[in-house]
Predict the 3D structure of the following.
Amino acid sequence: MADARWRRWTGSKPSRRRANEIDLTGIPGWQDGSFRLGSAQGHVRRRAKGATREWSDDPWGVVTEAALERTGTLAFDLAGAEVGGRIEGRCRYGRVEGQQRSGVLSISTPLRPLRLACAYRFDGRDAGGMDLAAIDPLRPTAAEPRLGDVTLGDATLSLESRHRMTGGRAALADPIGYVLTAQDGRVVGAIETNGTGTRRLVVPRDPAQRRAALAAMVTLGLFWDPGDTD
């Protein structure tokens, strides 16, 4: 990610002393498969589930209401020099939305926003976790923002979704990436999540922050995102 591109994402200039770029590549299109983070090797297992409950109290049968559940699991392991050992992640996600349908018309509203929760192990030992959830925006916008945090060992980083480049006109509903900040408010990392097969990461060099950032960003890079509404 070039300096100009980073500034468009975060509004600040990256420090080459504090961060470096790594590509997450070979992300499988199917539910299971192998991937790479730089020279590190990993494997992912994903399962997406769903259930729909439909009912109608319209005596004319014009409008049908339904509750749609989107749930799933994500598990990965990654080992190599890039991560300084072996990271394992086990995650669950879910959301529920309501739909009203009449013919070809459909209106969707969130009933229970998306939440992603993960537990991590580092070199075989429990090390921390991540919690990410969709939130109500502070003002009218097409974007459906998400906030969360990741803790690994003694390091805690905040996560915030990005829905457009800095200065861009239109925000997208789904995230195009995420920015990570330290507890002092300084941006220390970022990941692009749009596109397929490859993700670009900017990762802090600080060893403690690096492990937490890698755990979160690998999770988000591999995540089969169901969105917040269909």
